[in-house]
Amino acid sequence: MSRAFPAKQPRRRPLPVRGSRERGCSERGCSERGRRSPGIGSGAVGEGLSELGTGSGEAGAGHRERSRRKGIVGAAPLERGRRREQPVQSCGPGAMGERRDQAAARLVPPEGSSRGESLVLGRFRCWGHRRAGSDLSLLSFTPEGRSFAAVTSSRRTTSSSGYGAEATSALEKQEEADHTTMQPPPQEAAPALGSARPQLLELLRRRPQWLLAACRRFLPAGALPAPQGSADRRDRASLLLDRLEQAGPATWKEFVQYLCMECDLPLHLEVLLISSAGEGNFSQEQEACREVRARPALPPGSPEQYRQQLIASVLQRYSNRKAAGAAAQPPAQPQPSKQAFVNLLIRQSKASHCRQRAGRAQGRGAEAAELAESLGTAMEVSDLFPTGVPPGKTRVVFLFGKAGTGKSLLVQRVCQKWAEGLLPQFLFAFLFEFRQLSLLRSKVTLRELLFELCLQPQDSPEAVFQFLLENAWHTLLIFDGLEEFAASRVVQPSPEASSAPGAPRSIWELFAALCGGKLLGGCTVLVTSRAKRLPDCLINTVDLLAEVWGFDQERAEEYISCHFHQHPLKEQAIAQLRSSPRLLSMCLLPALCHVACVCLEHLLPQQQGAVQLPQTITQFYTKMLLIFLSRQQGEGAGGKEAQLSSHRKAILGLCDLALGGLEEKKLVFPLGDVAGQVQEFACLHGLMTALEVRTPGRSPEPGCAFLHCSLQEFFAALCLMVRQSVGEADLSKRFSLKSRWAARSEAGAELQERLHIFLSGLSSPGCRRLLGLLAGQGAAGLQGKQEAVLQALRRLAASRLTGPRLLELCHCTVEAQDPQLAQDVGSLLGCSYELRNLRLTALDLAALVFVVNSSQDLAHLDFAGCLLDREGLEVLAGCRNIQHLSFRSRRIGDGFAAALAKSLGGMRSLKKLELTGGRITAQGMAALLQASAACLQLEEINLQDNRIREPEAEQLVASCCRMEKLQRVDLSNNDLSLRAVLLLAKRVLSCPRAAELCVREDSVIISFSGLSGTAPRSSAGRWEENEEPFTSARFVKLCLQCCSLSPCHAKELVTILQSCPCLSEVDLSGNRLGDEGCSCLLENLPGISISKQLNLSQNHLSVRGICSLVKALSSCQKLRELRVSLHHETAVLMFAGDRDFASPPLREEPLTSAGDQQPGEETQTPPAPKKLRLTDGCVQGRQLEELCAALQQCSSLSELDLSNNHLADQGLLQLLQLLPHLRMLRSLRLHGNQLSLTSVFLLAQSLPALEGIKAVKLSLGQRQVVELSFWGQSRLSSSRGSSSGLEQPKQDARGKSFWLRDCRLAPEEVTRLCHILAACPQLTEVELAGNSLGEQSVEALLSCLPHLCHLALLSLRTTSLSPGCIVALCSSINLCEHIRVLQVRARENAVWHLGAGKRRQKTSCRLTDCGLGAGQVAELCRVLGQHGWLAEVDLSRNQLGDEGLRCLLECLPRVPAPCSLNLSQNRISQDGVLQLINAFASPGNLSEVQASLCSKATLIIQLAGRGDPRKALSLAECSLQPEQLEELCLLLGKCSALTELRSSNNHLSLQAAERLLQALRKELGALEISLEEPWVGQESVRGLLELAVQTCGTITELRICKEETLFQLGIRFPHCLEKMESVISRLQLQEPEAKRASFYQRLWEKCAQLQELRWSHVELQEDEAELLVKALLPLPELRRFRLTSSKMLPAAVELLLTGLQSCQALEELSLASLELSSAALPQLVLALSAMPSLRRLFLNHNSIGDQGCSRLAGALGNMHCLEELE
């Protein structure tokens, strides 16, 4: 153990100073060393060194690493003064610190010591207990925050220190004096309030909102005074205090208690207030009653004693100990300054949000928006522990915040308030630190956690523990620093853990059981953490989720004012803060604010004018270290280099210790692991703190830790940079970005939260000298390490980063202070920065702005759901490269808009601004409008979903008209009335730059065009300089859709529309204008300039209004098209300028042809075509006459659609009489007009009469279709007229079409129709569908075919056809020689394709699925036989059966050949197949038969012409029975012309196969036999060879593939018969050897001419391999041998390779996939060398190896015929 640490250490105390009296040092030496102590206190910042590691919390006792987690931050809300957003009073160096300072100052040696600069060590007992209490330590800061006094308590009553006895005596006397001061007599209560009132008013004057919220809490609504805007804050506070006093003593007492709990007041003021409330003046009976009302009754004895013991311990550790008072200092010493505590802001989220995190769905619409709006509610400390919680339910509060925001100090503040009696609902409060708990490796019980790890009861621990279990709802458990528990990310509670309170558990299991209510059910658990990420055990148990924020500018200035209280540099320091945006952004974090104060305090006296403060966090840490060194050594002790050199060894040792701890995820170090020199250096400069490690069952062990984890990371980063053992590659691996969205499984990730920040900062050029001094001889590699970090940042910028990692990269870029790096990072990140649902501090935005400004590209910043404070918006004002700025959040209000408006002027590149989903009203809009004068470069403004009304919208449009580059403004979902919309329309149309106003219900969008007048024109569509200007036409679109416009608004609308001469589209649909309003508009239509369209749909129009629209079509020359539908309520008017609806040219020729043009007459220019679509109405009688009269005047009508208007036959006749006047008509639609058969004949007669008629389409089914289309040629009338009154024109040579569908026609009607159609010789297409034609009707139709000489297509569709009728249709191929294809399908559809020309061509007849049976076969064959020129007959999917097949086979000789006959799927059985094979075997013209009785039932017959020798039979899956197989063999035996036989899965057994092979004979030629049966794969090779020798011919090809169950033979006839002697000798052989020799002999004879041998997937035994080698391979005609994918024994392989040596005539050899090894290669090489004619060799998928390939290549080099090798 080093001498720097005594053997027995108090539980929590700072490292003692070497050279104290107990180590033999003099008092003077100790005093001098104390004067040189570098003040590292934090003043008002409770966490002190939370970011810097150079200070401590104001509560100080324990001065542990809690500085890493806590601070006093609470960012002010965006809109100050809002109700319920009252900041919570945080702790600072106020009265609580003062009283400890005053008490400790009495222990300082008087001589030579200045105020607040002495480090004092002493021991004393715990206040409130004469007996020894638990070992505690107190860290107390002077008000200036420059030095501290460490006061420790011990179980001992004496101290070895020189000042121990004196300290104890002085403190006890001071306690008695203060106790007397705190209890004034009752008669002094009123004077006490009078003397306290001025100070109280001064305090509350600065907190008006807090005071107002407190009054609303304690006073009824009627008692509050009316608000007075001009009243002074002091007068207002005085009035509210008067109302509280008038409410009665009880209300005043509650207010005082609330004030003391929420605000840390100076000691004398708090004493006076308590006295004014009457506390301390009660009798014993009154005091007892008060205690009963305040909290539940405690049983006498041990629980009450333990409670008092806890209270005393907490007061000694954290409280200012009010009973101690403020001791009067000697007159010669100046009184220390008093500082008020800086407010702390806590924002809460709903607990339901936490519980739904695991299974929430994306995109919940309004529910998600409501939840987002409820997040971030400001709250007070008292709201953390609400009253009225049902007993038995465990309440979990999760408090999170960034480092340095005061979380740890806040929980200590809660403990202090509990000890002072301001949390009466809790009897007991326990505070645990996860950093200490993480050191425990063994399991502990709940009792050990409460007693041995916190405070051991003095008496009856069993009774105390039992009382705790029975009264758990009165217990508060606080767990501080969840992120410091290394196992919290990987260890989960085991499901089998016992629920008994006495069962031992791991710390994490114990914590999870307490939060889950399994232990101490009903208690309150407060958990603090740096990250908002919840562990799994807390996801469904957290009841309150709250965040601690940071300073705003006002609080930062207040803190600096407190720090420099009564200091001449106070105003200069505040001015420095206001003038430096970078400094302000850092000071919003309290820890950095304290560091800035220390630096200002050191630099302001030395530098005149502007002070050069550090610009990065790393520079602040470095500056702090240098300041501490200079203070300790003295200003005249040499420069920085000398100071660093003198402490270089200690600093490097501290760096090694820090890096080792991070690598091992260790925060606490045993004293034995810390060198003595490092201990002394850390103690002297306050960089580490001493603590005790408590373990159940063991005595406390001394240890130490860095004041803050970030301080440890800073020294670790220094170590990585200066140590030679760390190379550039190792440094790059260690460098990674910290994400706030990291997975829960990342263990200990919080321990290295800022290592990358410090590494980036140390890579800046400004740190190179410092690193060189520390590195010494290893300074040569520093530049390489710095460059490695910068390159790592560039690589990260090129990757895909989430929002948190993007911010971390920006922070690193700022820390590096390298302009080139910042430019590279900005370019690599691109132009879009998406930051979603994050809380962004001013420091974050400053880093982001730095990177954006460094980039050469303009950026898009998207802050969706992000929280930004006022200071952050001020930082954005300095961003020069913002192009698109987007905010989407319910938190956006008038205050936010006003703050943003002040920043918009600095964003000179901003083009698009989005403020959506907020609560902006007139106040916010006023600020934005005022700022718009400086934002003329804006192109788009989006203000959706706010609370903008009429005046603001009108002012916005007026402002937008002055913004020459503005293109779009979105005001959707705002509070705009109809009057506001009309005024807005008038304002927009009068704006010379307005392009469109689109209003659809709640959607309001205004679009603007470019500058009116001249603009440069470029061929590429871009604006370029130095080009001739042109005048651009202006077009404005107006859309007022669904705006509830009525007839009373029509005149106003006309006035608005007439005021704009450049309207392109007007949409007034979805309103209530009616006939009156629309008529008013149509009457004034000539005076309204509209170039494209006017939409009047859904305006409640009747037939009268539609007539007005039709009249407007003929009267308005600009009108081109009218679309009207009464049923669908549409009315759209198209004008001449609408290119989207412009019709194509209607005529290919001019109106008057050259031949018809009279002499002297000029060619007429056709007028512009017009369209009318009047549908879904009821136009009859007089209305139709009026319509026709109007249409007769519109001769330029090109399309007319009168569908669904109930015209009937009479109406059709009127329209046909109108057609000669409509000379430009191209299309007439009359669908759904209730026409009858009379109209059919009328339209058929009009075919030859109408000039230019193209097609007539009729359908009289359920949905009537009537459409007439005309060619693009003008129709000229002739003088002759028809009987129907139609004029007869001259003949048109172009074809015509007539389609008639779904019309029931009787035979006589069909005959009449056919005669009418025959009179039209230009008819090219006739389609009759669904007309139920009978046989007579069909015959009549077919009789007309020869007369229709131009007919190309005749179609009968969906017409029921009988089999007899189908045969009759088939006879048409003999009636008309122009028929090329006749196709009849499904007895419903018949199509004739006819071709012109005199040359006769083949005809195809396809009668599929027509139900033809055996009865129709004879007649059908007769008809087909008469044609004589057939190419194809398809009778598939009919019902011929075996009988029909027999009849067909009998008639086949009469069918001309060649021809293909398809009889598939005709219910043909195996007997029918045999009949077909019989016909096939007999002499005739059947050349090929394919039969398959599987599901496809294929049966195809090919009739061959003369001279075709091919005769092929293919049978598949016919399932032949044995007797049928026998018959098959007999039939095939008679077929001597057979050339090919394929049998597949026909149940052909091995014996039947032998019988079949023996039966197949022919005189001369080749025969190919293929058998596919399952037994092929099961039979041995010898068995298959025995089957092969049963054939009668000579085998030329033998193929066996067991995988495909294929056995294939190629046979050649004739075959030389064996000699009788050999047969007799073979029959006489009985021995096995003789039989084998006989089989070899027969195989040799059958395969004497074998040319190809192919075996695949066979398994050759040794005897079979011998058979192959001896009987087959030596055959002289063998040219191709393939043995692939087969299994062979090594002996068989060797035998095979030996046999191959005799195959000298082989041209192709394949031994693929035989698993040949390199051992078989020598024999293979010998065999290949004996094959001079080998052309193709396949040896793939073997194991030859590299050496074997080399040897094989050498052998193949001499084979000159080889063409292919694989």
Total helices: the number is 61
Number of strands: 60
Strand content range:
15-25%
Q: What summary fits the major beta sheet?
A: 38 strands, mixed
Shape: flat
Average pLDDT for all residues: 74
Rg estimate, integer Å: 52 Å
Query: Roughly how many Å apart are the termini?
Result: 79 Å
- The percentage helix is 25-40%
SS-based structural class? Answer: alpha/beta
Uncertain segments are 1-188, 280-295, 320-340, 351-375, 487-491, 741-749, 1012-1031, 1139-1163, 1276-1290, 1616-1631
What is this structure, in a nutshell?
By secondary structure, the chain is an alpha/beta fold.
Characterize the structure shown.
- This protein has 1766 residues and is α/β, with parallel strands linked by helices.
- The chain is 38% helix and 17% strand.
- It contains 61 helices and 60 strands.
- It has a 38-stranded mixed sheet.
- The two termini are 79 Å apart.
Explain the layout of strands and helices.
Elements: E1 12-14, H1 27-35, E2 88-89, H2 95-105, E3 123-124, E4 137-141, E5 148-153, H3 164-181, H4 189-205, H5 208-218, H6 233-246, H7 249-262, H8 267-276, H9 284-294, H10 302-317, E6 343-344, E7 346-349, H11 351-355, H12 366-374, E8 377-379, E9 395-401, H13 407-419, E10 428-433, H14 434-437, H15 446-452, H16 461-470, E11 475-480, H17 507-515, E12 524-529, E13 542-548, H18 553-563, H19 570-579, H20 581-587, H21 590-603, H22 617-633, H23 640-646, H24 648-663, E14 668-670, H25 676-685, E15 688-693, E16 701-706, H26 709-722, H27 728-734, H28 755-762, H29 768-775, H30 782-798, H31 803-816, H32 819-829, E17 832-836, E18 839-840, H33 842-854, E19 859-864, E20 867-868, H34 870-876, E21 882-888, H35 894-904, E22 912-916, H36 922-932, E23 940-942, H37 950-961, E24 968-970, H38 978-990, E25 994-1000, E26 1003-1008, E27 1014-1016, E28 1029-1031, E29 1036-1041, H39 1050-1058, E30 1063-1067, H40 1074-1083, E31 1090-1095, H41 1103-1115, E32 1119-1125, E33 1130-1135, E34 1170-1175, H42 1182-1192, E35 1197-1201, H43 1208-1218, E36 1227-1229, H44 1237-1249, ...
